[in-house]
Each structure stands twice: as structure tokens, then as C-alpha cells.
Amino acid sequence: MSLSADLALAARLADAAAGAIRPHFRAGITAERKGDASPVTIADRAAEEAMRRILTAEAPRDGVAGEEFGYAQGSSGRQWVLDPIDGTTAFLAGRPIFGTLIALLVEGWPVLGIIDQPILRERWIGAAGMPTTFSSGGGAGSAVRTRPCRTLADAALATTGPHYFEAHDGEHFMSLAAQTDHKRMVMGGDCYNYAMLAMGHLDIVCEAGLKLHDWAALVPIIEGAGGLICDWSGEPLAAGAKGSVLALGDPARLEDAMAALACGH
Questions:
Q1: What distance in Å separates the CA atoms of residue 21 and residue 34, rounded to the nearest whole number?
Q2: How do residues 44-71 score in pLDDT, each as one tens digit?
């Protein structure tokens, strides 16, 4: 498939997921607990099922990896990675800062990514070799860019929450946080933080323990906006990455951020 065809398919996946999610938002639905104690709802499952139906019909040779329904092996060297609701806790709290994540990996490398916020009708699209775009209300997308950051002391740092770090990782994160502008630190937000970084409203997002479906879509979006996203060792993110994620709006701050992270005991 061509890139334009892949982008059109990804957009249809996002539309289908949004249609499955919206009726359940602020509708008083309950959640179950998965094996890792994270919540899952009927909306998570319905959205992933809607996307998988489209992929089965339109890209049957491609693999699929979804948060709720696992892996389906493909034969094309391509894999769609789906997180129907990244931020189920925010969804349950009625906060529209969750998102649907859709990624396409080719030979293990993310080449296309979408963050879709179905309630606000906001969508970010990134693809290899193309500028990241943002659209709202179903309108045409326009290019977005990250912002420069002179020093770590000027940086607005975000993470989903300190309780998501294991003790050792938390110490490294706090070492980084101590060198940033702590009065502008953002807690909560899941994938929405990365979207805000791509638009130039945040400078650093730092997390650990993420799975493929949590970060795959973010890579083309951050890179296409002029930022950098890697693991805590500075290595690029590809299938098999350990799950530590460092996203920077200004790639010039990479060495500073890595040095700060390394200071954690």
C-alpha cells in the first residue's frame, strides 16, 4: 500500500474507534480490572473491535497488536498497533484527555501514528518524512511544531503520574524533575501530553514501563513535529524496546535530560 492509502486507512480506523467510544463517555459505565489491575471498559473493547474489523477486511495480510485483544500474526512485514483508549482512568473520570492510538510498524519500526481525541474531535497525524499535522472538528489539518527550550531549568515536564514508576525508575525521574521548572510540571494526561509537546505547549515527557501500544503511535508524531523521542539511554524506539520513554520538544536538550536521569540513585 502507498503512504496515502495507509493514512486513509488509519483515518478510517480512528473514525470507527471514535464512533464506538463517544456513546459511552460520561455515561456512567463501570470498569473491570485486567490482570495488571488496570481498568478496561466496554468502550475500550468496542473501539478495538471496530478497528480490527476494518483491518481484517482491508489489510488481511498485516499483523495486528491491540491492547485488549492481543496479537494477530501477519505475513506482510507490517503491523498495526492499536490502543483504543490510552488513558482509561481519565475516560472514566469524564476527562477528555485520553486518546485512541493507532500506529503502523514496518519491519518493527513505527512509520505512521495517530493520536485521536474523540470527544474534542482533535487528531494528530505523523508519518515518516512528513510534517505532523493537527486537525480539530473534522477540518483540514495544519502542520505543528515543537518549541525550542534553552535549558532544562526552562522546561515544562509532564508524566502520567509518579505512581506509574517503579521505585528505581521513580528516583531517576525525580532527578530529572528537580532540574526542570517544577512549578509548571504536569501530572496526568497519558498520550495527550505527547500531543501537547508536538504542538509546542510542553517541553519534555518522561515515562517508564510503557508497552508497544502505549508509545508506537507517538514516534512519528513527535519526530514529524521536530522533536525527539527515544528510550532513557537515547536509543530509538522500535519493537522490543524496554518501555522507558523520553520525548523532547527540543532535541538539543537530549544530553542534558539523559544526564539528569542518570543522576537518580
A1: 19
A2: 999 999 999 999 999 999 999 999 999 9
